[in-house]
Amino acid sequence: MTYYRPIASVDPSRPTGALPLAGGWCWFSQVEVLRRDAVAEVVPVSALPGEVRDRLSAPRAVFGGLAMDRPQIMGILNVTPDSFSDGGKFLAPEAALAQARAMADAADVLDIGGESTRPGAAEVAVAEEVERTAPVIGALRAGGMTIPVSIDTRKAGVARAALAAGAGIVNDVAAMGFDPGMASVVAEAGVPVILMHSIKTPATMQDDPRYEDVLLDVYDFLKARIAVAEAAGIPRDRIMVDPGIGFGKTAAHNLALIRRLSLFHALGVPVLLGASRKRFIGTIGGEALAEQRVAGSLAVALAGVAQGVQVLRVHDVAETRQALRLWQAVRGEAE
Ligand code: HH2
Prior knowledge:
three-stranded antiparallel sheet, alpha/beta, 34% helix, 10 helices
């Protein structure tokens, strides 16, 4: 199997023959060709098979109301007692609603979750998870908020209730592999889905995770999950992928994935990066407190945008918006 990683650039001078990366703000004129059993080589885009060129450069369809030709900010709202960085802060419905309102100014989409998936977290019963999430989504809609909402869940019943309450996207950290009913809920509702890579369950995922090649293994997994989703009747233009930073990964695994994130554009669907406040940012950045990891989180988010990642899942939406505005202004891009 051959893997094609577009070498993303945002340099203002663009060589003749360069292609837009996924129809977005980056361009590429060279591709790193990777194989499991061979040394990587860099080739010009002119040497690529036509279908690979097309898949890497084609514009991505609007996803759940979000244009994919510019970076989008997904604000995290955990309605849980135990999430790793904001656990307990927004468990009361009024607190959750106030936080949703505060985030809606700077975020393009809100990701609402009722079960922590931090390493070691225990499973939450469906009824409990529905009770935490659906009323908040319903109240936000009743209050006139029209911002797109994704439901962060592995469970079909939770997704169904959230969609009925007004969510429009399903974000599944188990890539529809946890609950056998998830694919049909998504397919029947006709909503888009985010498929994230993870190994095992949150309770055990950090027990010595190993890969043959983390980048290529995650790529193969996501490719296989896209095939499962398509077979279940979910069209490709309603699928987004996410390498799952911190889910069954060491700091070295996370860095290897972030360094070559642009590979995932070869799957032909938009890509999401969720690194906000995660442990490796604390380890490398020297910050034990998750809430104090905004600077490191921004550095990683911008590294993702520089590789054409379409959605940034973050806790610090206002700070990320500010960073993105400046990043875009320096490049001479209007927001
Ligand atoms: N990370 C977390 C939860 N959901 N979904 C996607 N698509 N990508 C991610 O990286 C991702 C995710 C974990 O972070 P958080 O929601 O802040 O914490 P917790 O799981 O403890 O609630």
